[in-house]
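Lab notebook: predicted structure, single chain.

Context: the supervisor wants predicted structures on file for every construct in the current expression panel, including those that have not yet been purified. This is the next one on the list. No modifications to the sequence; it matches the entry in the shared construct table.
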Amino acid sequence: MFSSGFQEERSRLVQIQDMDRATLKLLLAFMYSGVLDMTSAKSRELELLNAADKYGVEELKQYLELPLCALLSTVNAFELLRASERHDVPHLKEASVEHIIHKMDREESAIILKEMMFGDDMTERVLAGTIMERLWLSKP
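Prediction complete. Output recorded below exactly as produced.
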């Protein structure tokens, strides 16, 4: 990058535009120290997960699994499920699926699952099918 004739070579400045400054600072601090200040990371867990996946920081992805699982609620279960699939975070995916199956209102989750099933995103279709199958199998 610094010897390829790009703008960065001339200015010695790399602009990172896909995350805010606070998230970047947390990412870099983790990369250098292996420690994440969870107080500072509060409410930035998904942004950090996205950054960790994009920049290949697998340890941070693993580190974030437990805090993200602790955040699971009926409000964000599908959002965290999508994030877990997009960023390949298996424990978060399983926790999200379990939350949807056992803790969410079935009618409410059925509406969202229907939207996922008939949407354009093939990954969401597969996720919805998996959850619907498990819902069916868990019926009393």
